[in-house]
Amino acid sequence: MGRLSLKLLVLLCLLLHLNPSCPYSLKSCTIAYTEDVLAGVVLDCTNRKLVTIPDDIPREANSVNLGCNRINRINRNDFGNLSKVRILFLYENNISHVDDGSFLHMVSLTRLYMSMNKLTNLTANLFQGLSELTLLDLSSNNIQLIHPLAFQFLSSLQTVKLDTNKLQQITDIQPILQLPHLHNLSISTNRFPSFETKDLLLNTSTSLKVLDVSYNVFERFSITTQIFPHLEMIDLSRCGQSAGFKWDITDKTLLKSITRLHFSHTLISFKDIQKVLQSLDSLMYLKLNYMDSWIHKGLLATVCKIPTLKRLDLCFNHVANLSAKLVTCSQLTELNLSCTDLTELSNGSILPMKQLRYLTVDTNLLTKVPDDIKSLSSLEILNLDDNLISELGCDDFLNTTRLTELYLNTNHISKLDSCVFEHLNHLKVLSISGNLLWTFGGAFKTGLHNLNILDVSKNFVASLDQGDFQGLGSLKYLDAVSNNIGRVKKGAFDGLKELKTLCVSLPLEFENNFRGLQQVENITMYFNSDVRFKGPQPNYHEALFCLKSLKTFTIICRGYHHGFPFDIPKEIVQSMNHLEEFTADNVYISVPDPDTFKFNPNLKTLTLRRTDLSALGPELFQPIPNLQTLDLSNTKLMSLDFLAQADLFALRRLTLTHNEITVINETIFQSLPALRYLDLNKNPFTCDCSNAGFIQWVKSDNQTQVVNGHEYTCSFPAAEQGNKLLDFDIQFCWIDVSFFCFILSTSIVLLTLLTAFILHFLRWHLVYTFYIFLSFLYDKKRRKRGTPHDYDAFISYNIHDEAWVYREMLPVLEGEQGWRLCLHHRDFQPGKPIIENITDAIYSCRKTICVISRRYLQSEWCSREIQMASFRLFDEQKDVLVLLFLEDIPAHQLSPYYRMRKLVKKRTYLSWLQAGQHKGVFWQNVWRALETGDDPADDTDLLTGPAGC
């Protein structure tokens, strides 16, 4: 009960973070998974070949990326339900038209990116509703016209990017400059012939701080009005025409706030650029890229005279003896000399820069550390990446004792001496990856007492020896990944008492050398396929027993292998009581021992890739009820049945890509109530009714996002190969074939029984009904023709009563009274079916006289006659039936003869027995009955005379 309660509690806590109203079965987008429930719903719809805005974007979306598609227009209702979206990406589409008011309901939008489209103009109501927007990117469109009221609704806008458009007049940006909170404006690469503030009819000053007008063919750049009092930065890169442009700012006070200025391949005369630099009294950062010719003419002499200048960027200038021209720039604190083809930094060139804190000389041709650096005691960050330095001397960093970051990546350094870094006691970051180091030479045994991050990856060090990092007592991050490490000896990581993260390659020989890493929390180990543990079996796994604080453990085997000789003993993982993340990539050759995670209740993320888990069972997961992320990609899985009993009630993210799953039972996901993210890409699905439940689940479930579910394709059967899994029609699958067969067979059996019953017991009723129908047609036809009756009465009697009919009835009715009577033995047409003769006789006579006796009731044909006569009676509502009883038959004896009993109860009848000695009266009543008209209204009784007469 205690374990069940714990599961229910975990489940409840997780469900509180789920949003059941969010539909996750999306056709064209993917919801980015994040552990941070406060991050909101982030939607990725990039590169989906979309031509319209998807109609299934969740209402709860906070960020929507529709970039890199083929959308050509935005309709008014496309974003009608997205009131919570804060960031919207529409870059790199074909959008040429946006309906006015399309963003009306996006009241929370703060950033809108619409670069690289085909917009030509901005209408007055285009941005209606975007009162919270702070950034608008419309660069790389074809915008030529901006309506004066286009920005009227953007009261919070701070950054506007209109780069690479077709604006031609500076007045086009006037509506933008009127924005109350505008800080950044970029209008580079347009068609402005000049930039003159006198053309801007502004009544008040702007709040603009950054202005980018680069890549414009200006003839003139003029600021003559006080509209930019807060302007701090101007980018004039690649501005001007072949003859240059005119700088017209005569009043220095108009640029009193300028602190940053960018010139990069700017077409301006030497005289004008000097004029510009001399007019800026507050400049702190100057960027001079691709300005070789003016630097060669001595521009740096002017630059270095700017007393406020602190940061100078001289990248991409190819000038010989560049460093010699910097002598007078003693006030600099930051200097960037990247990509300047420097072969050396001449002595004394930067020595006067006593305040220099940040020096970047990467991507050059230096063969050694410049001598001047040795004396820069103020230097804090030094970047010498991507040079040709082959050796470091003991005095290279002798006086740079304030260095906190040193980057020496991608050089030709082949060795280190123990004295190289011994004076860098304040160094916190050292990166020396991608060199030719064969040994560390004791460089990390002394000094570097405050080093936090060390990267020595991608070198040629063959062995990590004992004490190599002995002096790095403050180190927290170490990257020693290299394909060339041939041995890691015992005690190689001694001294790393504060280490938190270790990335290391462990090929060939591996000894018990993690004993000193008491604080390490994250380890990533790369093994070559021929990895071996040195030491007697079975104690090789003790090398990792000391990692008691480990939270993240990643093991990656590079290349092809037949499995580790030690198969990662379960004891290694079991000893890591605080483990939260475990990754084994290309390591196991079969399913790990079921007890592997028996003592890891805190495990939240488990990744097992590139192995054979086809025999995986639920036992492996049962000890880790708090697991939230599971990745079993490329593991030859063919079924997910193991999940049904794995007790993964807290699992939120499940990745099963590149497997062999063909059929999925949707009931499996009932055992994963917290699942929010499911990735099943690259599986050979079967498109038939066996997957109908899963397809329906993907379409209807509103909790779990099936990543790219609408892109899953069918591999089986051959007829469906290449089709989309979710396009498979599952409607006919809901018919239970066995149930259908049961209903069909049952119906056939019942129909057979019913047919046999009718043929045996009711065949005459059917015949009778058929002829009743014929008689109905016969009568309608007869009446339509107005054919007169052939007889006055049809006599219906039993053959046993024939003597009475001939002896008593005929002499009176035919002989004395003169009625024309029809008798079957005398007047029926020979050869004609009996039932047809009966029908003709009844309908060709005005009346029918039924001579009733017990034998009459028992006669089948007599029964047909009286039934047909009664049908005529009730069908025509005429007095056509005369009942004449030869015997006294009580009512209860008439019960089996339902039709006769019903007639007797409703009609007056004649009784021969009751006539007695008054036969004349009896026959007189018969005459009166035959004489009565057809209309029942002629008399109150259909038969005249008292009952029983």
Automatic annotation (TrEMBL):
Belongs to the Toll-like receptor family. The chain crosses the membrane at residues 734-754, 761-778. Residues 789-930 form the TIR domain. It is a single-pass type I membrane protein. It is found in: Cell membrane; Membrane. Residues 1-23 form the signal peptide. SUPFAM superfamilies: L domain-like, Toll/Interleukin receptor TIR domain. This is Toll-like receptor 23. One of its GO terms (biological process) is innate immune response. Keywords: Cell membrane, Glycoprotein, Immunity, Inflammatory response, Innate immunity, Leucine-rich repeat, Membrane, Receptor, Repeat, Signal, Transmembrane, Transmembrane helix. GO terms for molecular function: signaling receptor activity. GO terms for cellular component: plasma membrane.
